[in-house]
Structures are given as C-alpha cells and as structure tokens.
Specification:
- It contains 20 helices and 35 strands.
- By secondary structure, it is an alpha+beta fold.
- The chain has four domains: about 60 residues, Ubiquitin-like (UB roll), CATH 3.10.20; about 170 residues, Threonyl-trna Synthetase, Chain A, domain 2 (Threonyl-tRNA Synthetase, Chain A, domain 2), CATH 3.30.980; about 280 residues, Bira Bifunctional Protein, Domain 2 (BirA Bifunctional Protein, domain 2, 2-Layer Sandwich), CATH 3.30.930; about 90 residues, Rossmann fold (3-Layer(aba) Sandwich).
- Helix 3 packs across helix 4 and helix 8 crosses helix 16.
- It is globular and about 90 Å long.
Length: about 625
C-alpha cells in the first residue's frame, strides 16, 4: 500500500502506482485538469511521473506560481520547436523562464525580423493544436553528447560537458528533442495563452567575447484573460515610458557620449532635490547623521570588504601613483572607515550614518535602460551600527520608515526575505544567526513575507521591499541587510558596559535604492503627472495678453517668495494653446490664468491638471492653497 501525505496533513492510500495526474484526478476531476506537476518529497516532478512509493506530495496547478513557471518553460520549448520547423538550420541554446514570460536564445543563419516573430507564433499555435505529449527520458552524458553532436547542436554538447553529470534528462514533444531538467506541462495543448513580444541580441553565456545570438522573448499565462490583462498593462506601460516622458517633461536625457550616465535638466534636478530633501528631514528626525565618503578608494579596502573578489567584474578601476584604486560600487566600506575614525562605547549605539553616495557599477551596454539601469547612480545608503540586542528594534524602526515613504507615493508593497547565496563570505553559523534576526523582526511586526532562498548579498541576508505601481508592475526598491561579516573583517569595535571590546552589528539599508531608478519608477507610476507636493513645477501662470504681464510678474514673485515652484508663460500665444500645453504635454498640476477681470479683482482663474473646470479665487487664497499642498502628505 502506498501512502501519500498532502500539504494539509491528510493522507491518501494508493493500492497501485499511478501518475501524478491520475492521483490529482482521484481527489477531484477539476484538480486533475489543472495539474501541471507536483512536488514529491521536496522534488519537483512532471504530471506523468509515476508515484510508486509513500511520501509527501503537493500538487502544482496551472494557476499557482510554480505552475505558471512550468507553463512558461514549456512555452519556450514549443517556441524552439516552431523556430526549428521554420528555420531548420538554426541551433538552439537555452530557454529559461523570466518574470511574466520566457526567452530562448538561438543561433540562426540570419537575425529574426518582426515578420519572423509572427510566423513563429503562428507555428506555435499549430503545435499547440497538434497536442504533442511532453515525454521525459534519460541518457548517459556520452550518449547525449553524441546525439546532439550528430544533430549539429554544438551548444547543447557544451552544456552537457559543463554539467559534469553522468546522466542527463531529455524532453521530446513531436519531432523536437531538447536537453532539459523539466518540469513540463502534460502536452503542448495545455498552452492556452501566449504571445511573442520581441527579439534582441544576446551573447552566448552573457560573455561579450562569445558569439552574438538571437533572443526571442515571449509571455505566457494560464488563461487568455490574464494574457489580455498583461498586454493591456504593457500598452499602458509604453505610454508611461519614463524615457519618453523624461524628454517630454524636460527632466533628463542620456547622451551618446555617456551611455549609462544620465544628464538631469533643471526640472529633473528639482525632483531629485525634493526626494533628497524629504529623505534628509525624516532621517534627521530618527537620529541619522549624514556623511560623505570618497568616490574612489584603494584596492586594499575592497579586498578587505570582499568586493574585489566577489564584485570585481562590476567595478571601474584606475591606477594612481602605481597604486590600484576602484571607484566605489557601494558606500558601505566608506561608512565603516567613518565609524572607525572615532572610538565608540555602547552608549553611542545605535550609531546611524546616512549618505547620498554616488556609486558606479559596470553594466553591459545592452542592459542599459534609461534611468532604470545605469552605470552611475546616487544610492540613499544608511548604515546602522548597533549591538546584537538592538537588532530587532532597529529593523522594526526601518520597516516603519519604509512603510511611511512608500505609502506617501501611493505604492503597495510586499516583503521578501533573501537568504545566503552560493557566493558568500562568513560562516554558516553567522548566516543562520543573521537570518534568524530578520525573521524575528518580521514576525514581531506580523508581516507576511516570501522566502527568497539564495538571493542575499554576499555579506549578509536581506529584506527586500517589492513595490506595486499604479498599473500593477512590481519593482524592487528598498533593502535591509544584516551584516555580521564586514564588522569582523574590518575589526570594528565598541567598548561595552563591561569595559571590554565588542564587535558591532552592521545594518545596511537603502530606501529609494537608486534615486535615478526611483525617479524613473515615479515618472511611470504617475505617468508624468506628479502630485503638487512633488512636481518640479507646481504651478504655471498663463497670461491672455500683454496687458496682464505686470500683474503676472508680481504674482510670480509672491509665489516664489512663498516657496512655490512656479513658471511664468507670457508668450504671445492663444490662451487655449497655452492651457493645452500646460494641462496636456507638460502635466502642470495647477494652471493660473490671468485676464482683464482677474487683474481688476486681484484674482486668478485656477484650472487643475486633467480637469476642464476652472474657478476664480483671490491671490491670497491661491498662495495659501499651494503652500498647503506643498507639504508632504505623510499619514503618520
């Protein structure tokens, strides 16, 4: 008798071996139809896997997170099959799942075109209708190498050699055979909703020394409605593209002379400065002291920190007086040097340093994207040095601060706990202690969080804040990282109550993350229509004729003196045109229109962004209103 234990603890008896799908159907026919895999004794398996011994089982359905990944992975295989049908001499490489979709890298005879994508998608639809079963089998590594070599699939041979395994798994659907670990949907007919999105160049294994391949991106979902919703969101995202709006609103641009190094125009700097201003005010309230550390430090420092060995490929270096230096990719070593500049006692802790530090990280040119992916950016780093007993209290305080900021921008968010990566410094014991401290703080706050194994920083685990914007996209922004390793490596200390030296704990945290990237996110989140308190230009004065210019200039001065970010438009243009420009392309929150009557009555005609309505108010009233709307609307 076979006994399977379900996630809720219930048990089911099987008289004979059966497949995962058959087992799911024995629970319910609808569950059977939705099954795309299972996790048996912690191992993910195909729906055709035979259950022949007792154990634990979790059914994976097509609407679950793991189920969607299986669907997308299978979609990549179906796409590769379609490509090789249409372009038989194309070599296949790898086809992983990514957020919302999948891609597959190909080595074709010539680059794919938009017309090719349409043909490939049409062929995929045929393959789905043909409903080929996904069949798993195993080969020895030598058999697999011979098999793929005979097919001319040199990339697959290279992958098998790198695996170093005795056996490999193979999947077949119809005539298409691919090297793959799995898991896959029962058959190609299970792919209900997909679309190919774009094609781009990509180096084999991400190495610019290797051959340039052709990457095709696609998306896939469990239902057509989910696909339609996603495509609608992408259409909206295109309208909100921060690169387009950044140029339209005259906020920033990227020049060919400095790819990855954005230029900020005056309005962009206003926005940049406003974000820094509210950051400084709120951090000062919480006892943070702002520091400024050098942009370039010597190799020895980066060797002690571990960056030289774990992050070297992302660092820019230079030789000065025959000594090697690196431009900082992170601010933390500088903050440590600042801490060590003075002696500290337990009475000084927690010591909180904050820095708006300019960092540089090398990115391949193909990865650069407006403000979202750059080579130089300002990171709102802060480091808290505290005792072990103060960890939980400090983590909770930081979480509360992040919540306050993200809420004021209108973001929802969820939290992920990222644990020890493969490439890490420090002992397992230290990592376990750090991870336990972060879990304790989250549980104390009653926060539900997602575990993200292996995605921590190389020096410590971290809490990641994933924000949802106004059209439902998820962005990684804030982090809180707990570090027992760098204090030890830098021999940091404080004098305890016992008069002895002790090692402090270091908490790394960045709320905006990259200010440049955060601005890019805000542009798209608000579609360029910033709230009055944040807008680079809060109000624009529009005159109907030259007769109102003296009155308009006087109002302009009064508003500036009141701290309002205001522009004056006295051009000889029709007022309708001026209004459309301010209320349309420039997305100015408040337009103040001045004609003959307004001058006589010491009033302005007020029109709000996005509204066709307007009303007259006194000059004093609009000044007070705009001053009130300039306050950051923190809820607590």
């Amino acid at each position: 008798m076979i006994e399977m234990i379900l996630p809720d603890g219930s048990k089911r008896q099987l008289e004979n071996p059966m497949t995962v799908v058959e087992f799911a159907k024995s629970i319910g026919s609808s569950l059977g139809k939705a099954t795309v895999g299972a996790i048996i004794d912690g191992v993910q398996v195909d729906p055709s896997h035979i259950i022949d011994k007792s154990g634990t089982i979790e059914i994976i359905t097509n609407t679950s997170e793991k189920g969607i990944e299986i669907i997308r992975h299978s979609a990549a295989h179906i796409m590769a099959q379609a490509v090789q049908r249409l372009f038989p001499n194309t070599k296949v490489t790898i086809g992983p799942v990514i957020e919302n979709g999948f891609f597959y890298d190909f080595d074709p005879e010539k680059p794919f075109t938009e017309e090719d994508l349409a043909k490939i998608e049409e062929e995929m639809t045929k393959i789905v209708k043909e409903n080929y079963e996904f069949k798993r089998s195993e080969m020895t590594a030598e058999e697999a190498k011979k098999f793929f070599a005979e097919k001319g699939e040199t990339y697959k041979v290279e992958i098998i050699e790198d695996l170093g395994a005795d056996k490999v798994s193979i999947y077949q659907q119809g005539e298409f055979i691919d090297l793959c670990r799995g898991t896959h949907i029962p058959s190609t007919g299970y792919l209900k909703a997909f679309k190919l999105m774009s094609t781009a160049g990509a180096y084999w294994r991400g190495d610019s020394n290797n051959k340039m391949l052709q990457r095709i991106y696609g998306v896939a979902f469990a239902t057509k409605k989910e696909l339609d919703d996603y495509l609608t969101m992408m259409e909206e995202a295109e309208k909100r593209d921060h690169r387009k709006l950044g140029k339209q609103l005259d906020l920033f641009f990227v020049d060919e002379h400095g790819p990855g190094f954005p230029f900020f125009m005056p309005k962009g700097v206003e926005l940049f400065n406003k974000l820094q201003e509210i950051w400084r005010v709120e951090h000062k309230k919480r006892g943070y002291q702002e520091i400024k550390t050098p942009i370039m430090l010597d190799k020895e420092l980066w060797e002690i920190s571990g960056h030289w060995f774990n992050y070297r490929e992302n660092m820019y270096t230079s030789t000065i007086d025959e000594k090697e230096y690196a431009i900082k990719p992170m601010n933390c070593p500088g903050s440590i040097i600042a801490y060590k500049n003075n002696l500290h006692s337990y009475k000084d802790l927690p010591l909180k340093y904050g820095e708006m530090g300019l960092v540089h990280r090398h990115e391949f040119s193909g990865a650069l994207h407006g403000l979202m992916r750059v080579r130089a950016f300002t990171q709102d780093d802060a480091h808290v040095f505290c005792t072990k007993e103060q960890i939980e209290e400090q983590i909770i305080e930081i979480i509360d601060l992040y919540d306050k900021f993200y809420t004021v921008f209108g973001f929802e968010y969820h939290i992920e706990l990222s644990t020890k990566p493969d490439k890490a410094i420090g002992s397992d014991e230290i990592w376990e202690m750090a991870e336990a401290n972060l879990k304790s703080a989250l549980e104390h706050k009653g926060i539900n969080y997602k575990l993200n194994p292996g995605d921590g920083a190389f020096y410590g685990p971290k809490i990641d804040f994933k924000m949802k914007d106004s059209i439902g996209r998820i962005w990684q922004c804030g982090t809180i990282q707990l570090d027992f390793n760098l204090p030890a490596r830098f021999e940091m200390s404080y004098i305890g109550a016992d008069g002895e030296k002790h090692e402090p704990v270091m908490i790394h945290r960045a709320m905006y993350g990259s200010l440049e990237r955060f601005i890019g996110i805000l542009i798209e989140h608000y579609a360029g229509a910033f709230p009055t308190w944040l807008a680079p230009v809060q109000a624009r004065i529009l005159t109907i004729s030259d007769e109102q210019v003296p009155f308009a200039k006087e109002l302009f001065t009064k508003l500036q003196d009141a701290g309002i970010r205001v522009e004056l438009d006295t051009r000889v243009e029709k007022i309708g045109y001026k209004i459309r420009e301010a209320n349309g392309d420039q997305k100015i929150p408040v337009q103040l229109i001045i004609g003959k009557n307004e001058v006589v009555n010491n009033e302005v005609n007020v029109r709000r962004f996005g509204s066709q309505d307007s009303k007259n108010v006194s000059v004093d009233e609009i000044i007070q209103t705009l001053k009130q709307e300039s306050f950051v609307p923190f809820s607590k």
